[in-house]
Write a structure and sequence with these properties.
Largest sheet: none
Helix content: over 70%
Shape: rod-shaped
Radius of gyration: 41 Å
Structural class: mainly alpha
Distance between the termini: 126 Å
């Protein structure tokens, strides 16, 4: 019976060692996967930032072109207007006269 108990104790020790080794390996693999996920997230964040920056630059360029086009259009319209200083002075005088 003593041999049987010693064998059982030996099997238990082996089982404990195997379980400990398995836990160590599982922890190593989890850490490795965690690191890979962190790297993948960092790369994705970098790619998104790069894409967003490019899209923002393109949008700013479009807005700038549109603004420049509209400004030029307004300048042409203003330049085409004729100034009637006499009418302007008459209107100002009429407003001033009404105010007093």
């Amino acid at each position: 019976m003593s041999d049987t108990l010693e064998k059982l104790i030996g099997v238990e020790k082996t089982a404990v060692t195997l379980v400990a080794d398995a836990e160590t390996e599982a922890n190593r693999r989890k850490a490795q996967v965690r690191l890979e996920v962190q790297r993948a997230r960092a790369e994705l964040a970098r790619q998104l930032a790069e894409t967003s920056e490019k899209a923002l630059s393109e949008a700013r360029a479009r807005v700038e072109q549109d603004r420049s086009r509209k400004n030029e259009e307004h300048r042409r319209k203003l330049a085409a207007l004729s100034l009637n200083r006499a009418e302007f002075n008459r209107l100002v005088a009429s407003y001033i006269g009404k105010g007093s």
